[in-house]
């Protein structure tokens, strides 16, 4: 399969300057319950949850009898709210609180739509709104990464973004299937596949990888290859079965990348501890 790498890869590695020293961040992190690596991990999950919520909302419309979709939706909504509260209490990120406030504003508008009864028109509206909540959440992660000021922070960010991409791939697929993605559904799907593949290569090339991280990345490569067969029409199965296989495989990719992101966060935490 040939993909075109999207221009937003440039945006991924851009960051906004913040005015706090490494010592300020390190000293403040010791006074709270989680570290900068944890904060980047949690903030990165918000990107993923914006896409997972939208995916599960659409799936409730496609397969209303499947209880799992409603459960995933409710758990994800609850987690997004909980994570916002955690991040708001993270004192080392006080210099960038205005960026988090923008996420909170986007979330309120998004959640108002998501709480409406499932319909095609509302799903199309939520699909569009998920594409404004995501950049706001991403900007906050990038500013946290700049605040951390260490190469391992970039790995936490990029691997966390892979979690999001696994769910945006699934979101774009089911939105296209239900006819709520608009005219760009196919292009967005293949751009996400291209970015996921490209960033896996980037992570695999990191000299900071442990053997466990490398093994987990290789597993994710295999799952991406399997899911791609479904997008290419190589799987001979019913539509319902194909939705199950693709969303199930992207969920495995999510779980793998969640483990990897946690492993990279531990590397950053170790750097913080060593610097004290």
From TrEMBL:
Q: Where is the signal peptide?
A: 1-20
| Chief place of localization | membrane
Q: What does the UniProt keyword field contain?
A: Membrane, Signal, Transmembrane, Transmembrane helix
Q: Which Gene3D superfamilies match?
A: Histidine kinase NarX, sensor domain
Location within or outside the cell: Membrane
Q: Where is the NarX-like N-terminal domain?
A: 37-116, 150-215
User: What is the topology of this protein in the membrane according to its UniProt annotation?
Assistant: Multi-pass membrane protein
Per the record's keyword annotation, is Ligase included, yes or no?
A: no
Name assigned to this protein: Type IV pili methyl-accepting chemotaxis transducer N-terminal domain-containing protein
């Amino acid at each position: 399969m040939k993909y075109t790498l999207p221009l937003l890869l440039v945006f991924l590695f851009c960051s906004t300057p913040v005015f706090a020293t490494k010592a300020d961040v390190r000293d403040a992190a010791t006074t709270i319950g989680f570290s900068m690596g944890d904060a980047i991990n949690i903030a990165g999950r918000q990107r993923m949850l914006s896409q997972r919520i939208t995916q599960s909302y659409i799936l409730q419309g496609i397969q209303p009898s499947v209880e799992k979709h409603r459960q995933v939706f409710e758990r994800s909504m609850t987690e997004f709210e909980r994570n916002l509260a955690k991040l708001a209490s993270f004192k080392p990120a006080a210099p960038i609180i205005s960026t988090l406030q923008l996420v909170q504003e986007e979330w309120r508008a998004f959640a108002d739509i998501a709480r409406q009864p499932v319909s095609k028109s509302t799903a199309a509206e939520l699909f569009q709104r998920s594409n404004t909540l995501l950049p706001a959440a991403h900007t906050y992660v990038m500013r946290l990464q700049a605040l951390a000021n260490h190469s391992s922070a970039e790995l936490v960010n990029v691997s966390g973004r892979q979690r999001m991409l696994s769910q945006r791939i699934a979101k774009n697929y089911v939105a296209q299937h239900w006819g709520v993605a608009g005219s760009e559904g196919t292009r967005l799907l293949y751009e996400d596949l291209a970015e996921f593949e490209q960033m896996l290569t980037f992570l695999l090339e990191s000299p900071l990888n442990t053997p466990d991280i490398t093994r987990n990345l290789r597993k994710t490569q295999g799952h991406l290859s399997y899911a791609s067969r479904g997008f290419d029409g190589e799987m001979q199965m019913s539509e319902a079965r194909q939705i199950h296989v693709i969303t199930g495989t992207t969920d495995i990719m999510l779980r793998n990348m969640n483990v990897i992101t946690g492993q990279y966060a531990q590397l950053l935490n170790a750097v913080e501890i060593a610097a004290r």
